[in-house]
């Protein structure tokens, strides 16, 4: 009975230790976090990108890879960034794009230009909180301006696909899963500290691990 209790304590103790390793792991990859976008930050603090808080750490290249990957994931899957500008087909010429973040045409991603009914529809990918306008001249030579509108006004960012980059280092709860496996597997099959049957308790062990991953904040 005492031996079983010790084995159970060892199993869950190692799970807690695995989660408690996350702050160390997070530090050595450069402590990636969200920072204000260098262009949009002065206008809207909702526009953020990932960057390393401690860029001199040993695994900083891995941390930088996570940052780039997560930013690209957000850019591709966040439909709230997609905007459409409608302009009449009977326009003489367009004079370019301006945005609320003072970005010019060359800095704005134009995804498509197509015809919708009696209008041209220009689809843009903007930054969070950004709006755009296109100046044009109609057939009568009058200068006019068309403003953007969200392509998916009711989009919920929570519906974006799960990101592997969060699971590999950016999210403590997600990363704790891999850290728990990395600790428990060798403890079982190499050190033989507990039998493989204990992995039936992996779900509560993972809960203990996630608690350990956040224990440093308590």
3D structure, described in words:
With 218 residues, this protein is an alpha+beta fold. The protein folds into two domains: 133 residues, no CATH class; 76 residues, Immunoglobulin-like, CATH 2.60.40. It contains six helices and eight strands. A six-stranded antiparallel beta sheet has the order 4-7-8-3-6-5, with no helix packed on it. A two-stranded antiparallel ribbon has the order 1-2. Helix 1 packs across helix 5 and helix 1 packs across helix 6.
Put the structure in a nutshell.
This protein has 218 residues and is of the alpha+beta class. Helix content is 38%, strand content 26%.
How would you describe this structure in keywords?
218 residues; alpha+beta; Immunoglobulin-like; 2 domains; 6-stranded antiparallel β-sheet; two-stranded antiparallel sheet; 6 helices; 26% strand
